[in-house]
Amino acid sequence: MTAQVLPFAALAYLLALLLCGVRLLRGPAAHDRVLALDTLYVVALSLIAVLGMTSGNPFNFEGMLAIAMLGFVGTVTAARYLIRSRGGRDADLG
C-alpha cells in the first residue's frame, strides 16, 4: 500500500515546491518571500523523506538534517534583517 501512495505524495510535494517557488519570485512583500522560503525548505524536507522511503536509503535523512539546520538559520537571519531594516516596526503597522 505504501509503495502505491509514495509516488502520489512525491508529485504533491513537487507541486508544492513549484507553488512556493512562484510565491518566492512574485511575493508582493519581503515578508511573503521569507515565509515562502521557509515553506520551501520544509516541503523539500518532506520530499526528501518520501524519496528516502521509496529508495530505502538511510543517508537521505542526514541530508534532511543539514537542510533543516540551514533552513532554520536562513529564515531567522532573513526575519532579523527585515525587522532591523524597518526600524523594529511591522510594515503594515507603520
TrEMBL record:
The keyword Cell membrane applies. Keywords: Cell membrane, Membrane, Transmembrane, Transmembrane helix, Transport. It is found in: Cell membrane. This is K+/H+ antiporter subunit F. It is a multi-pass membrane protein. Its main location: membrane. The lineage of its organism: Bacteria, Pseudomonadati, Pseudomonadota, Betaproteobacteria, Rhodocyclales. The chain crosses the membrane at residues 6-25, 34-53, 65-83. It comes from Niveibacterium microcysteis. Pfam families: MrpF_PhaF. Belongs to the CPA3 antiporters (TC 2.A.63) subunit F family.
